[in-house]
Amino acid sequence: MKLNLNEIVELHYELNGMTYTKEGVSTVVSNGLLKQKTSMKNKLYFQRLNKVVEAEVKLLDESKKELFDKFGEGEGEERHIPKEKMEEFNKEYVDLLNAEKEIDVVSLWSTDITPETLASIETEEVYPVFLKLVDK
Fold this sequence. Notes:
Blueprint: E1 2-4, H1 5-16, E2 18-22, E3 25-30, H2 40-71, H3 83-98, E4 100-102, H4 105-109, H5 128-134
Antiparallel strand pairs: 1-4, 2-3
Helix pairs in contact: 1-2, 2-3
């Protein structure tokens, strides 16, 4: 299944969870699929998927840094994108986020994962990008 890089970033958070920190206080927004109670077989499949997702997120971060180097000015913490280059930076960044990656879940899971396979997961969280992969 093809996902754009924006969806892959969302999937990364769905798998690993997300924490929001403000003024030194951390708040868990999502625990992530990898921390939910489920079978070891499902955990293995999720970890395989996470390995692919983390590699793509790393490449995205490197590409974003290259864009920042291309358009940025200043040094250290004073480095910024000048107002006159912001539109072009944003256009290239959005183009980057819309790039697609084929994720072959069948090769990662060796069998179909269905809603029935996932029925053992105990969670109140929702994972829309992950469910898109399952509902292929």
